[in-house]
Amino acid sequence: MGKTVEYTNNLEQSKIDLINEIKKRVDDKIIEQSNADLLIKLINNAESLTEAIAITELGTTYKRTGFHFDKRLEKFDNTIKYFSKNTSLSFRTNDDAITHKLVIGDNYDALLNLLVSYKGKIDVIYIDPPYGKDSMGEFADTNYDNSLTRDNLLSMLYPRLVLARQLLSESGIIFISIDDKNEAYLKCLMDEIFGESNFTASCPRKTVSSKTTKSDHELQKLFDYLLIYVKSDEAHFTKNIVGSKSYPLHDERGDYYLVPLQDNGPHGTKTARPNLWYPIYQTKDNKLVLERESEEDVEFLPADHKGDAGRWMWSKKKFLTDSQDLTISDKNVVSIKHYYVEGDDTNKYQPWKDWLDKFLNALGTAQLSEIIGKNKFDNPKPVDLVKWCINLHPNTNAIVLDFFAGSGTTGQAVLEANKNDGGHRQFILCTSNEITTTTPNGVVIDVTSKRLKRIMTGKCYDYSTGFDWIKKNEPYGDNLDVYDIKTVANFENTSGKTPFDVIDETIYDKEKFENIKDKIDWVCSNFEGTQKCLESDENWKRRMEDN
User: Fold this and answer.
1) Whether residues 340 and 434 fall in one domain
2) Nearest Cα to Cα of residue 94 among 415, 473, 479
3) How many helices and strands (H and E) does the chain possess?
4) For all residues of the chain together, what is the average pLDDT?
């Protein structure tokens, strides 16, 4: 980057990260421990980061399941990519309000730059990646009608999802919309990157009420999928409140409700837990005991369950400690008294369902049309779908990332979620400014930024207010910083044009450096990774043909 820099510390840290990745693959049963030991030894002896990465990849090419695809090759070049403020598209409504971000350019470069400031800080990622035949350029040949070649789709997603995982916090959750043709392949890819143990659900989402078919052997396809993965065991979902507990009964100790002592769950049998099967006796003075005291005592045993003897939820030890909380109900069942205690959570909860039937595609189209007019963007996802994903994470101050942002649905979903619950979530959107017949100025100019400007300020960039949405909604407020991705050669040494001159540290949430030495150290430490580039369509296609 204009000077010789020692990257020893970075190399050693990278080796540690790569070794941890190898160990994770052992835990996920992707590679054998003996193979991992050899790879770790080779990584420790690697003389460069490129060599260490190449060694690590030896542990990913083959899996026991046979899942394999041709990845695009990654290499370093001499061009640094960095964020540059787009002042014409950025706007402010209130200096004290939340400032959201929109990045224009290749999302691979955007993710590399986001790692400078947001590594391990993103709480929610939602993406709707391109999988149509027209989404990836001239070499996106199809093996299904309106579907990318699998290798092309997977090799495009693989490096981006690897970077996305680095951005996620330990309690982070990632959601990916995908069609039924590619869901199985994308799940295999996600299992490899995020680990099978972190798979949460593959939720069918109803997309339309009815659909025409093209042949006599075709079914109506009324749904797609939402894949959900967590970063680690630290992740948990917002509790789904379905009602309030009632305490209809009363005794000298207070109000209470009854729950049967018998376990009627899937493992509620004597065979599963033999030590939880035992008789309980009711004495003539209505005490419950474990030993019969007289012939008049009434015996209670767990009822049969799933073709086997049943069992209680309590052990004998707990029974002896807490038997005062047990009673025989009117239905002649041994039951637990749950008393009301001041300050207790009285909500009733139920796990979220994995069938999404309220987020049809037509809703997304109607929502976008109200803001920017009709026929500007094909198949935008419903705002409520993305809002459901966002609300599944309990942090109302979450940072939400969408690096296939398209029309900006995720941005609107964050703004609406904040309005609904008073949260302070921040969105970061990344998208290319793709030019189409309906977006001659590019999708960012004609759709994404225009949508955000209108719903956040109540007017467009030209101060016009002639759109339907504003007639029945109040602007959401907040600020938007828009960034272009620019490049500078790492050997550029012209005064005022060097990487240390053009990269603005304040964009990356840093205070202005007081001296150039600190600025040089920071740039060298943080922007080496942005020099990574992926194999072009042309080279990738040529390599596939040669093979």
Assistant:
1) no
2) 479
3) 15, 20
4) 88
DSSP state of 513: P
Q: Which residue has the higher pLDDT, 26 or 7?
A: 26
456: nearest Cα among 410, 412, 422: 412
Amino acid 52: pLDDT: 85
**What does the pLDDT look like over 100-139, one tens digit per residue?**
999 999 999 999 999 999 999 999 999 999 865 444 433 3
Q: Considering the domain boundaries, does residue 547 fall inside one?
A: no
269 DSSP β-pair partners? 310
What is the SS3 assignment for 155-219? HHHHHHHHHHHHHEEEEEEEEEEECCCCHHHHHHHHHHHHCHHHEEEEEEEECCCCCCCCCCCCC
Across 236-263, average pLDDT:
92
How far apart, in Å, are the Cα atoms of 472 and each of 32, 188, 373, 381?
A: 60, 44, 16, 21
| 37 vs 519: CA distance, rounded Å | 39
Same domain, 140 and 34: no
Residue recorded with tokens 């189209």 = 365
Domain that holds residue 19: 8-68
pLDDT at 134: 42
Give pLDDT, residue 30. 67
Write the burial class of residue 388 (CB in 10 Å: 0-12 exposed, 13-18 middle, 19+ buried): buried
Secondary structure, 3-state, 21-39: HHHHHHHCCCCCHHHHHHH
DSSP string, 302-344: PPPBTTB-B-BSS-HHHHHHHGGGEEE-TTS-EEEEEE--TT-
446-467 per-position pLDDT tens digit: 999 999 999 999 999 999 999 9
Q: What is the mean pLDDT of residues 26-37?
A: 78
- CB atoms inside a 10 Å sphere around CB 373: 14
pLDDT per residue as tens digits for the range 286-302: 999 999 999 999 999 99
Query: Is residue 98 located within the same domain as residue 165?
Result: yes
Q: CA 333 to CA 264: how far, in whole Å?
A: 13
pTM over 0.90: no
In angstroms, the CA 74 to CA 535 distance is 6
